[in-house]
Amino acid sequence: MAGILLVEDDPSVRAGLELALTRQGHSVTAYATGEEALDHVRSRRPEIAILDVMLPGIDGVEVCRRIRRLGPLPIILLTARGDDLDVVVGLEAGADDYVVKPVEPRVLDARIRAILRRLESATPDRLTFGDLVIDRGALKVSLAGKEIHLTPTELRLLLELVRHPGQVLNRRYLLRAVWDHTHVADSRLVDACVQRIRAKIEPAPADPVYIHTVRGFGYRFSPP
Amino acid sequence: MTWVPTGLRARLVITFLLVAVTASAMVAGLGYQIIRRGLLEHAERGAVADVRETLSRITLPIGASDVVWPSDTTVTDEDLGGVVQALEAPERTVIVTYGDHQSSNAGARFTMTDVPDQLRWQAARRLVHQRVLLRDRPWLIVATQIQRAARDGVLRPTGLTAYVFVPLSEEQAVLSRLKAALAQAGGITLVLAVTLALLSARRVLLPVRRLGAAARALGAGELQVRLPVRGRDELAELTATFNETAAALEDTVSELRTMESMSRRFVADVSHELRTPLTAMTAVTDMLSEDAEDLPDDAGEAVRIVVREIDRLRVLVEHLIEISRFDAGAATLRRETVDVGDALADCLEMRGWADRVKLTVPVGLTFSLDARRFDVIVANLVGNALNHGAPPVVVSARVAVGGENHGALEVTVRDHGSGIPEEVLPHVFDRFYKAGTDRARSVGSGLGLAIAKANAELHGGSITAERCDPGTLFRVWIPKQ
Sorted alphabetically, which keywords does the UniProt record give (chain A) (predicted)? Predict the structure, then answer.
């Protein structure tokens, strides 16, 4: 049950997805253009956005980028199979996940639920790593006293890494833990998300001090 | 034409040499003979004239009386010595005979035994000369019986015969030098001929070799290869013909390629265009199948058919898009280190095959591969085994140790069905290949195995299919990065 913003230019696809998602219990608002969708995001604050990449006017990736500037609204991209460039650009623009057309509603629903899964805040503690402070109770992250806005996916990935300090977590594990993907999906999701977190918390994202890449295996959180 | 076990170059050089050697041998031989004859004749004439003149000048006691010669006893050894002295010259041997008397010069090297009999006979009548080889040296013997005019004016033989051995060693030395010079010239001619032969062979063979290399390049697919046409000979003509052929071939091939890429583009475009309506349909198929329960039987069945066929269409379009990406060369490989056991288990689990397939993989087996493409390979092979073969379906993986595939990942998918007929095996990876009527066409896109193969090949690997008893074994090889 979520307030979904759906942007898709083809009327039949839009109607079909709206029907299916509504049937699955979501409340869906559908638009044909990115401009309308951005207005909606500003005024109505949906819970999640599903964007078609190929849109007339401003395309899905640009919409994604602009939504990201407005706040941490989770975004799922609808892409055409094999258009790898769309996927990479979309994830870099801040999308949390992507599905390939033609998508089965069950799959889309599972992705939506995984992203909107409530973050467990079972351990009400504050962790401090130099300038980086992670409040696991309030689900807030700040760097040098300034609050950092992470999307739910980014926050979940960061918390997962922080939960296993000094330990290498492979991409498959992270995909399952954070995205709920039950198969060998695209590990670029993890890579893109780590890049976005680094851009927000690392003093020098190209030379990270918190989240380290272990080539060929995965990532390790080991603060200085 | 008989087969000659030599190349064109050797044949050219041999022919050239034969001509050069024959020509120079003929010229040298003829020249030598002419010079030799001239030289010797000149020497002979000189010697003969000398002897004749000397003899005509000397005065002899013979003929002073009317005594019948040679019984003239007034001739003494001193008289003969005088004749010898008159004819003498350095190196010469002079022998003079008169009846029983015989006289020769001081440095005489020869005796009468050295004079051929025939010459002696001839000398009795006229002045004769003959070349002989004595003690390995050439000599000219000039012999004559001296004649004197008697009182009645008739020439009469005197019985006094002179033999003069004139040395020809000087002429011989000249001839030897000439021979050496000719031999030297012959040698130089030979060297020149070889050089010229090689050069001209090169001139002829270089374009031939260039043509050969160009033809090979053309065969290897370098259709833009052309050769510069030089001169107006047969080779230039051949080169021009080659260029025309290459140009024609290039045109044809580029036309074919254009047509092929157009048809590929068309398939890709069609697939992409089909995707949008399919997305709309796929979105609502779940609702349709849920509600089919509440519809009347026939309507419910109709809905189920629609739902099933939409699903099939979806797989077909996905496969078409995938294969058209391979055809366009747009498929990219993203290798990363993957736990093979996890990847295989995830592949089966995600498609609900985990309890229908037996999986045997060493724990902790990792390999560098493109996880998504590996998943596609395994899914297509296992899907094929489940749809067309019979249980148990066994999937196993290992890294080969030793042999030509050392370090490569081997994944096998085996079913225990009736197996694929031998004549069909080579075609199982062909697109849309229909393996007889007994194999149901209602499942699968007809592209699954072709896609699996393309994905394996993108890794630099391969897939093979072989008959087992019972069933079929598909073997995937993925080499180390």
Answer: DNA-binding, Phosphoprotein, Transcription, Transcription regulation, Two-component regulatory system
β-partners of residue B104 are: B95
Residues B21-36: tens digit of each pLDDT: 898 889 889 989 999 9
**Model pLDDT for residues A75-114, shown as the tens digit of each residue:** 999 887 656 677 788 888 888 888 888 888 888 998 888 8
Residues facing residue A54 across a β-bridge: none
From chain B, the residues in CB contact with A16 under 8 A are 279-284
Domains of chain A, residue spans: 3-116, 126-221
Pick the CATH number of A3-116 from 3.40.50.2300, 2.40.128.50, 3.90.660.20, 3.20.20.70: 3.40.50.2300
According to the model, what pLDDT value does residue B68 have? 47
Second-level CATH architecture of B235-327? Orthogonal Bundle (1.10)
List the single residue in B with minimal CA-CA distance to A19: B284
User: How many helices and strands in chain A, by DSSP H and E?
Assistant: 8, 12
Residue B67's pLDDT band (cuts 50, 70, 90): very low
CB contact under 8 A, B276 and A186: no
Q: Chain A to chain B, count of Cβ pairs less than 8 Å apart?
A: 96
Residues B24, B211: Cα–Cα separation, whole Å: 36
The mean pLDDT of A10-33, rounded to a whole number, is 92
Contact across the interface for B287 and A19, Cβ inside 8 Å: yes
Instruction: Return the DSSP state at A54.
Output: S
Q: Which CATH architecture has domain B59-167?
A: 2-Layer Sandwich (3.30)
Residue of chain B whose Cα is closest to the Cα of A14:
B280
* B372 contacts A82? CB cut-off 8 A: no
More confident residue, B411 or A137: B411
Mention every residue, 6+ apart, whose C-beta is less than 8 A from residue A222.
A165, A166, A210, A212
Residue A106 to residue B286, Cβ atoms within 8 A: yes
- Separation in Å, CA of B217 to nearest CA in chain A: 36
CATH class of B336-478: alpha beta
Q: Edge to edge, what strands does the sheet with A168-170 contain? A: A168-170, A218-221, A211-214
Fold annotation for A126-221: Arc Repressor Mutant, subunit A (1.10.10)
Instruction: Report the percentage of chain B scoring pLDDT > 70.
Output: 92
